Amino acid sequence: MKIIDYDIRSIPRSYMRRIIDLYIKYQDVGATDPGFKGWRIARQFSHYWDRNNEVMGCFDKNDDLVGFIAWIHNHIDDPYRGVPFVEFDEEKGRYVRSGIWWHEQLLVVPKHRGNDIGRTMMNTMLNMVNGRIRNTCHEEWLVKFYESFGFENIYHGQVPKNPDQLYWINERRSEHSQEES
Ligand SMILES: CC(C)(COP(=O)(O)OP(=O)(O)OC[C@H]1O[C@@H](n2cnc3c(N)ncnc32)[C@H](O)[C@@H]1OP(=O)(O)O)[C@@H](O)C(=O)NCCC(=O)NCCS
Known about the structure:
The chain is built from four helices and nine strands. By secondary structure, the protein is an alpha+beta fold. A seven-stranded mixed β-sheet has the order 1-2-3-6-7-9-8, sandwiched between helices. The protein has a two-stranded antiparallel ribbon with strand order 4-5.
């Protein structure tokens, strides 16, 4: 199938049950804590809807949900460096705290993979997000996938609670982002 056979659109909280089902069935990377695959995933997605962040779904010809992407914005300091995220504010003529976007979810059900859905959902998100954005991944090929959207790998290491599992942190900056000192 081609991407024109799919519809990508914003989805409301009523899709929670369907998302959890897909997550439990197919999201096998990064879920190092078994408890994550239950109420925690519901809590995670609640945050996206409660705080007016975005969850987008991809639907096939039968209008079945076959993929999703979600992202969130917050103003916490950089958890890895302990300093604020800043951007240059043209009007104020100085750097101001900007917060950061986190791209936290991306999944396509296996049967529909390789049809450009993942790539199209990524581009949809990046067209809607203004500013610095990060994500994490647990497989090396995904670093290349994210690099193709302008992300750069800024860290890789072992998951603290599970030293057998590696993870990578990727970041895409806007032109106004400043290096932390
Ligand atoms: C990641 C994922 C969403 C990609 O979805 P998809 O719809 O198959 O992606 P696309 O069809 O847009 O293809 C993406 C690219 O990745 C490449 N790719 C896909 N699977 C790959 C693999 N196992 N190894 C290497 N490259 C791979 C494709 O060749 C394609 O490259 P191209 O656009 O340069 O041709 C899907 O594999 C998935 O749901 N994986 C499980 C969940 C997951 O890992 N999510 C990411 C969490 S960080």
